[in-house]
Every structure is written in structure tokens, then in C-alpha cells.
Amino acid sequence: MPRIAPSRSSLPRRRDAERTRAAILQAAREVFIRGDYHQAALSDIAARAGVTQSLIHHHFGSKKGLYVATMHAFLSELDEDLQGIVRPALNATDGDDPDDCAAFIAEAVRGYFRFLSGNEQCVRLYRILDLSLHSDPELLASLGEIGDDGREMSSLHLIRVALDRLRRMKELGRLRPGVDPVALLAAILCVVEHWFTSSRRLTHRLSQALGASGAADSVTDEAFLGTVIDVLVRGALAGAGDRCGEAQVSDTSEGPEEPEGPEGPERPDDKEGLR
Questions:
Q1: Using one digit for the tens of pLDDT, what is the confidence trace for 119-173?
Q2: Half-sphere exposure (CA, 13 Å, Cβ side) for 43?
Q3: I need a labelling partner for 186 at 20 to 30 A (CA). Which of 2, 74, 168, 228 fits?
Q4: Which CATH architecture has domain 15-61?
Q5: Homologous superfamily of the 76-248 domain (CATH)
């Protein structure tokens, strides 16, 4: 049978429906981003969008359906930016020697840091999302990162790429014993996100504790980023901390080494006792 083309009268209605849906999503983002999911009122969203609450139920089914659709729409907008910033960082080094492994961890941290530093609204949304998921854990099951077109978002793919690389490093013995690749990746993501969601509050508390003579104000983005990378690289990679320790000993040692007894080098306290 020949395909029946939609009537001309149906096209304006479809465009009106698309505009209505877009207006509701925009209004919902403005409301949801102000606070907890449970505190948001559909009446407020309807008023902002210039529609009735029944239209919200028609397009999204429920408040939870609207919330999930709003999060998906926002994440879809960020998807291209995330891929453009983080993917080059993950692909910057693909070797397996210790220097390449260290560079991979450093670039993974820097890439995610750059992405969040350029998307302040995303950081705010993460903070609100954490609060909502804490009060309603069932929301988590509805927030799979699959776009409206059924395509998986880049964030999940990038996480898998990073995890595959860390697992390969583990198999090659590049990670310290006891360092789990999944836990290491979680540490990278959490520590970067926590800086953006909590740094103002924490540095303010440090300033109060340290007083005028303290150096809390000197904890800049770059200072924090450099410290985190140093701690993660030296703490996660096999031999990195040992080499660091050896360098410190050689720098501070003076004169010939003391002879070692059966239980190691003599210490002053061994002969004089504890004071």
C-alpha cells in the first residue's frame, strides 16, 4: 500500500507539541536546579512554561518522568563538550611503560577538571542530583545515560575506556598491590567533582581554622590539581613512591652511611633509651 503522508493540518499540531515539550523541559531545568527534586512543584514548572499541569502529565507521565527527561536533555547538551575535552586526554598516551601510565592518570584528572571548570551549571546540577538521589534512591534506576534516540552517551563510553586502561595497567603490574582499578577511577572522578562542589565551603573553614597567618587562600585550582595528580600517581603506580622516597634520602643524606646491625641501622635511641 502507498504510504499516506501526514495531513497539512497535523504538522502545525506536531510543531506546537514539540515547542510545548521544549518549553516544559526548559522550565523544569530552571526549577529543578534550584534545589531538591522533592521540593520542586509541578505548578511552578507549569506556570513558567505557560502550560497547564495536565499537559506536563500528557508529555511526561509524572513528575519523576519529567525529572528524568530534564536530566537526559541536559546531559545530552553536555555530551559533545565532554567528549571533546576528555577523550583527547584519555587518548594522549597509549603506551604501557611507567611514564605513560603516570601521564594517563594525570591527563585523566586534568581532562575531567577542565570539563567541570568550563561547565559551572553542570557542577550545580551534580550537587542537586546527589541530594535528590540521597532522598530518593529509586531515582538512580531511572537515570541511565541513554539519550532519547537510544544512543549511549559519551560519559559511559569514556568511563569504560578509562577503566580498560587501568585494568591493563593492573595486569602489567604497573599499579601497586591492593590498588583496584575501579576504586582508582572512582577516586579520580570523586575527588575532582568534590573540589567543584565543596571547595568554597572547605577553604572557608580552613581560613577560619588557620586565621590570618594561614595559607588557605593559596589553595588555588592549580595548586589543588597539582597536589591531587601527585598523590594519585605516586600512590597508585608501583615503584613511584619508592623512587620518590629514595630521592629524598639521597638529597638529605650527609656523610657515609652508618653500618647496619642485624636489626638495621643503629639509632641514637637504641643506646640511650627513650627520653
A1: 887 888 777 777 777 767 676 666 655 455 545 566 778 888 899 999 999 999 9
A2: 1
A3: 74
A4: Orthogonal Bundle (1.10)
A5: Tetracycline Repressor, domain 2 (1.10.357.10)
